[in-house]
Amino acid sequence: MVNVSTASNPSCPGTRRQRLRHRAMQTNPLVTALVSLALLSACTKPPAPWQPHPVFHDFGMVPHGQVAIVRVPIDFPQDRGAMLPLGYQGSCSCVSTHFVAIGKDGKERVSLGRVANEHAVLPGEKLFLELSLDTRRKEASEQKPVTNAGNVLLTDIGETLGRVVIPISFTFGIEAPVAVSPFAHINFGALPMSQRYSLTLELRPRKGTQAHFLSAKADDPRVRVELRQDGEVCLLDVRVVPDRGLGFGPLYTTITVPTDLPDAYVVPIPVSGQIVGDIEVKPMERISFGRFDFKTPQEGSVIVRDHDTSRPPEFEVLEVRAIVGKDLAQHMETELQPIEGDARSARLVLRYLGTFRHDRAFRGFVELGKRGGGGSVTSIEFVGFSHE
Amino acid sequence: MSDRPARARVLAAACLLFAPFFAVCAERPLTMSVTSQDPSPQQLGPRLRLRISGNLEGRLEPCGCASGQMGGLARRAFHLQHDRSFDLLIEGGNLVKDGSPLELRKLSTALGVLDLGGYSVLGLGSRDFELQIDDLTMYLQAYRPTAVASDLVEKNPPTDPALAFPSKPYRDHAGTPSARVASLVLHLPEGAARERFTLLPPAEAWQRAMADCPKERLRLLMVHGLGDEVRAAAHYVPRPDLVIGVSPAFNEPPRVYETINGVPVLFTGIRGRMLIDVALARRESDGSPQLTRYEVIELEGSKTAPGAAEDRTTRQMIL
Fold first, then answer.
1. Burial class of residue A326 in the structure, from the number of CB atoms within 10 Å of its CB (0-12 exposed, 13-18 middle, 19+ buried)
2. Beta-sheet strands, E only, within B131-229
3. In angstroms, rounded to a whole number, what is the distance separating the alpha carbons of residues A269 and A236?
4. What is the ipTM of this complex?
């Protein structure tokens, strides 16, 4: 039986009426329990109400190429014992964050963001959220000031008193010393191996400043760059030339253009895209039949085009092979239809004959070659699922 | 009797509890530098290089709530094709947000992307089991990544193996070093999943998955649960070499991993915004696992060139 004696608790000495109640509950267990609960709740000291102090920081306009770091003080309840900084949840990923606690001895500890007791901050210590804004990782373009909001979350060690949420907001803009137009990032999309991509960018120092562009360089040999002056304007010619030896795949590099601006600012211009085969497949690179009744014939198609003019234009189907499902060739029919006015293109029609009975899915590839041999030039995936 | 002495006792106990830690803190900086603590390469066995992610929650594309959001499968595919310095790709599961028909379609697309991207391991999480089990079965059968659920047991196993749920208790990775990957669902949602399956106790499931695992093989464990459930796995027997937390408790992968019971423990974050680049090896002297590389890769796009650094094929599959 729970039996709380108010008399034995000097912090809650109790009135004469309470003592009478205490005497009464000794005879009635239900009354005892109810009164005990009431007394318990009256005697337990809840944490004092605590109001978070929202924090705001204005980075101002940060010149591109610089890193701005600030420590914003975080106020936290002092009457809940050790508190764990659980993390910062923000509306953007534009800054990296971590917590720094400074002990009473003045020594710093960096919280690793782990939910573990040893990363707690104690009453009387100072807690900071360090915001690091690295503009070097951002594109070299002007960004007007924007305000980002988030919350710092803290909890007591036992997680019994509820989490503390402290609103944080900060504003920053990026000042680009050099305006790059029309794009600060060149995206050449999908470039067939036998084709070339070219673009000219304009580099212009910020109004009121003068700058000379010293040279331009790209680490990837497939990206060729050349600076030239056209009157007052500096132009950067960029060409992407696929290399058969390097094959297909993504290309990501950064063109760098050093300047004689203060801090030896270097203009970074990312270049990205994919070198793809000369066989273009559209509108989708695969044929998806979706979910349907496997007893019903279905038809799907894609248009294929060969950009490589050194090869004959005609395609031929080499094989229908399965990844899932057996002997797909027996269940599929293919046809290549010419496209009027475009000798290098053809429509590949794939017909499912409605003959699967036991499988719930099929998936495979149609291998296409060129007339005259030479093996497969492209594989077109197809997939279908039974709706049963 | 005053409560002051009692408070003093609590304070003293707390001081005693934390004193060793703060003493350690005072001695060394807590910003963990993976390389500074690593033994020299000569002391380590061969490394297994991984790219790890999890808790996609149906986010095939980055959130459109603001410009410049990270993530998206097209960016992931581009990145993985651009930087192929990995031996094994691991997706932690919870590919979908819930069991809705829209999420089912997303599952199909996500599996197709993972398959084309070369993923071989998929850990199943509780959210995946919110889908109709037959639908989940069908899509898992159609794609090559092995669905791993080490603690999952069918209550009434079908007599025809073809009708069994297509998950495995583990997935072996051949190579030098070789590895075995297990995964714990830990929590099944209410409904059909609980009618059909039961879950083994996690430590028992881990032991079952590792029963015949050769000693030299690295032991990797994914755990779908809260932080402490994940951390508890570091104490399982046999000792894991790496514990991967697929946990909603961490929105982003922490900048440093944890070490518990000598086992590196990391968390994937959510919504596929980042990848974790990890190199795992065992120290030759005592066989203890070491992460010789831990880097969080942010899958960022371009603010000025929409669609930049995205894989075209993946983009089409999503559309």
1. exposed
2. 146-148, 152-154, 167-168, 171-173, 179-184, 197-199, 218-223
3. 11
4. 0.75
Please say if the pLDDT value at position B48 is more than 70: yes
DSSP class of A259: B
Instruction: Say yes or no for a CB contact (<8 Å) between B78 and A82.
Output: no
DSSP letter, residue B88? E
CA distances from A176 to A120, A267, B270 (A): 40, 9, 33
pLDDT at residue number A263: 85
SS3 assignment, position A20: helix
Chain A positions in Cβ-Cβ contact with residue B133 (cut-off 8 Å):
none
Cβ contact B302–A118 (<8 Å): no
3-state secondary structure A341-387: CEEEEEEEEEEECCCCCCCCEEEEEEEEEECCCCCEEEEEEEEEEEC
Instruction: Examine the pLDDT at A113 and tell me if it is beyond 60.
Output: no
Of A125, A222, A142, nearest in space to A177 by CA: A142
Q: What are phi and psi of B141, to 5 degrees?
A: -70, -25
**Please, are residues B318 and B64 in contact by the beta-carbon 8 Å criterion?**
no
Tokens 């057996």 correspond to A326
pLDDT of res. A387: 82
How far apart CA A324 and CA A300 sit, in angstroms, is 18
Residues of A with Cβ-Cβ distance to B113 under 8 angstroms: none
Q: Do B78 and A324 touch (CB under 8 A)?
A: no
Strands B258-260 and B263-267: antiparallel
Give CA–CA dist A360/A343, Å, rounded.
Answer: 38
Q: Give pLDDT tens digits for A260-312.
A: 998 899 999 999 999 998 998 988 888 999 889 999 999 999 999 999 888 88
Two tokens, residue A380? 């077109």
Could you give the dihedral angle defined by the CA atoms of residues B133, B135, B138 and B143, in that order, rounded to the nearest 10 degrees?
Answer: -100
Confidence band of A3 (pLDDT split at 50, 70, 90): very low
